[in-house]
Q: What sequence folds into this?
């Protein structure tokens, strides 16, 4: 019986190459592709694939957001993250979101195919170079601090962040100052950079 796979990747060339490579595997059936997180979630709901292979950074929802929402909705689709981000902070957040596999994009296609089979069977497949670091320094940020800091790092001012997240400007300032304190950063830009470097944004 073949394993149905949905691919989510915003770089169309990478998406096409992944589809072609996985299509060569006799037991894997690529049933759909998505170029952003929102489209991927819609397709997970309609196609109910066995496994979703997704990048982390995409327009709309990130791969980590997707994994968390799939888990929240109780959908049976298992998730494999395929990314360029070799950061233990990302891996830790992925595992917390219920992700079954976490691989780097420079891994051979045979490794990805094997990981899909392992995760489909209920196992876990994690890049060995990252696995040892996964339970290193814990992420100190709350989800709301992360959201505010991400937008600040993208260059938004307090008023824009306030409108985007439906928070008061005072609340936005509080979240930013708390994030800066936790990261021992002198300003919001440095805090966002530090958090990104550690895989916490």
A:
């Amino acid at each position: 019986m073949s394993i149905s796979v949905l691919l989510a990747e915003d770089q169309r060339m990478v998406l096409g190459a992944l589809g072609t490579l996985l299509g060569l595997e006799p037991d894997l059936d690529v049933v759909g592709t998505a170029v952003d997180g929102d489209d991927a979630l819609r397709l997970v709901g309609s196609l109910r694939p066995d496994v979703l292979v997704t990048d982390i950074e995409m327009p709309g929802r990130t791969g980590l957001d997707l994994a968390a929402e799939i888990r929240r909705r109780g959908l049976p689709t298992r998730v494999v993250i395929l990314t360029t981000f070799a950061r233990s902070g990302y891996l830790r957040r992925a595992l917390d979101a219920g992700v079954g596999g976490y691989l780097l994009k420079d891994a051979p296609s045979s490794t990805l195919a094997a990981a899909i089979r392992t995760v489909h069977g209920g196992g876990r497949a994690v890049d060995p170079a990252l696995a040892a670091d996964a339970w290193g320094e814990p992420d100190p940020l709350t989800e709301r601090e992360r959201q505010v800091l991400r937008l600040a790092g993208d260059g938004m001012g307090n008023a824009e962040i306030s409108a985007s997240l439906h928070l008061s400007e005072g609340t936005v300032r509080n979240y930013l100052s708390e994030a800066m304190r936790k990261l021992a950063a002198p300003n919001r830009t440095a805090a966002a950079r530090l958090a990104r470097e550690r895989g916490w944004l």
